């Protein structure tokens, strides 16, 4: 259940795939749906965690809503955010957070770059941080490294697939795999 809240701040997929374009922090997105997989490696004092779920996302970075459902359609959680308010609603009740990174840290002890995910899922690096090419980038600009993550957006157009990996850099910072498959 804790991993379900990790994705509540910014994972998105789309029912109709738009032409990839960078988003702005205030850009709105259409209703989007898809499936996601998040794997967090074990670290001292914490077992490995995995979440596989479907999701529905509407809005954008500044204001939006994300619903996370089991593969059978049961609602696990819903996040709603707008300036000054980030709320997580689960079967256990409602929690308030200062911001989206706080929500991900509380859910998993990890901060996921939610603002960057909006652009990554459009096949582009986020404009808010430096980007480095990766070895795979020599023939495809949709492979890049940003914010400590290696992002492969090369299959978004063909398969609706995004994969982002953060390698473990210390014993307290585990490796994380984020895979999103967008609905057609």
TrEMBL record:
It is a lipid-anchor. It comes from the Bacteria. The keyword Lipoprotein applies. It holds the Pfam family LolB. It is found in: Cell outer membrane. The keyword Transport applies. Keywords: Cell outer membrane, Chaperone, Lipoprotein, Membrane, Palmitate, Protein transport, Signal, Transport. Monomer. Belongs to the LolB family. This is Outer-membrane lipoprotein LolB.
């Amino acid at each position: 259940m804790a991993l379900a809240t990790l994705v509540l701040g910014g994972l998105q997929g789309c029912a109709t795939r738009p032409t990839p374009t960078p988003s702005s922090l205030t850009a709105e997105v259409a209703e989007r749906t898809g499936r996601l997989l998040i794997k967090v490696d074990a670290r001292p004092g914490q077992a490995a965690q995995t979440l596989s779920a479907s999701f529905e996302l509407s809005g954008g970075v500044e204001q939006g809503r994300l619903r996370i459902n089991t593969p059978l359609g049961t609602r696990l959680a819903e996040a709603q955010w707008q300036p000054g308010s980030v709320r997580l609603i689960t079967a256990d009740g409602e929690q308030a957070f200062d911001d989206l990174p706080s929500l991900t840290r509380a859910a998993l002890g990890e901060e996921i770059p939610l603002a960057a995910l909006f652009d990554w899922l459009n096949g582009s690096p986020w404009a808010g941080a430096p980007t480095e090419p990766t070895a795979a980038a020599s023939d495809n600009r949709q492979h890049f490294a940003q914010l400590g993550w290696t992002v492969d957006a090369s299959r978004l157009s063909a398969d609706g697939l995004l994969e982002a990996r953060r390698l473990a850099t210390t014993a307290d910072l585990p490796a994380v795999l984020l895979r999103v498959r967008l609905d057609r």
